[in-house]
């Protein structure tokens, strides 16, 4: 099965930098773009997972009221100024 094709526009300076990187590493654009996209998706996926976990906590009633959170941070800030 053939891989899907993605197409998008970028600034010319970015293409020039990508081409310089490809030349310096003896790799093609596709190699670097696939690697960069995989790293980006991996690093950003934590956010979606964290939101889902937070929503599950809310639905299960595992929450902390705002006043408790505020008190914790006020106490922490007071210790930092001592």
Could you explain the architecture of this structure?
The protein contains three helices and no strands. With 82 residues, the protein is mostly helical. The protein has one domain (12-81). The longest helix has 31 residues, at 29-59. The protein is elongated and about 55 Å long. The model has no long low-confidence stretch (mean pLDDT 94).
Based on the model shown, name its key terms.
single chain; mainly alpha
Extended strand count:
0
Instruction: Report the sheet with the most strands, covering strand number, pairing sense and barrel closure.
Output: none
Structural class: mainly alpha
What is the ordering of alpha helices and beta strands? HHH
Helix content: over 70%
Rg calc: 23 Å
The chain-level mean pLDDT equals 94
| First-to-last CA distance | 64 Å
- Oligomeric state of shown chains: single chain
Low-confidence stretches: none
Strand proportion, as a percent range, falls in under 5%
Number of domains: 1
Overall geometry = elongated
- Count of DSSP-assigned helices: 3
Can you lay out the helices and strands and say which pair or pack?
Blueprint: H1 12-25, H2 29-59, H3 66-81
Short note summarizing the structure:
The chain has 3 helices and no strands. With 82 residues, the protein is mainly alpha-helical.
């Amino acid at each position: 099965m053939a891989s899907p094709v993605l197409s998008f526009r970028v600034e010319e300076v970015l293409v020039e930098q990508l081409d310089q990187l490809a030349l310096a590493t003896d790799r093609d654009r596709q190699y670097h773009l696939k690697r960069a996209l995989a790293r980006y998706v991996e690093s950003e996926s934590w956010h979606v997972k964290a939101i889902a976990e937070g929503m599950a906590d809310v639905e299960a009633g595992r929450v902390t009221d705002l006043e408790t959170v505020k008190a914790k941070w006020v106490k922490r800030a007071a210790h930092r100024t001592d």
